[in-house]
Amino acid sequence: MVLKYADANCCCLVGDETGMIIFTARNDQVDLMKEGTTVTLRNAKIDMFKGSMRLAVDKWGRVEVTEPASFAVKEDNNLSLIEYELVNVVEE
Fold first, then answer.
1. Which InterPro entries does the record match to this protein (predicted)?
2. pLDDT tens digit string along 41-52?
3. Which fold does the domain 2-81 belong to in CATH?
4. Contact 46, 24 (CB under 8 A)
5. C-alpha dihedral, 76 to 79 to 82 to 86, nearest 10°
6. Which helix (H) or strand (E) holds 32?
């Protein structure tokens, strides 16, 4: 699944044998993200967006198209569907 936006960003659902997560592709990364393509995300990071996790690769990382994967994506573990809430802990 690839959703493109007018501001040179798109959201893609990416995954491996452990689960899936929404990846926010930016600028030149958008052209590499096509449904069914296998990519390697190097130095990726997690951003929080409205209480859920999104994967992103900034200027320190790389997105590379690679050979087709030899594993099946675990589609029943979408980490972006888990909602997190910031809780302040008061130390006594």
1. NA-bd_OB-fold, OB_Ssb-like
2. 999 999 998 999
3. OB fold (Dihydrolipoamide Acetyltransferase, E2P) (2.40.50)
4. no
5. 160
6. helix 29-32
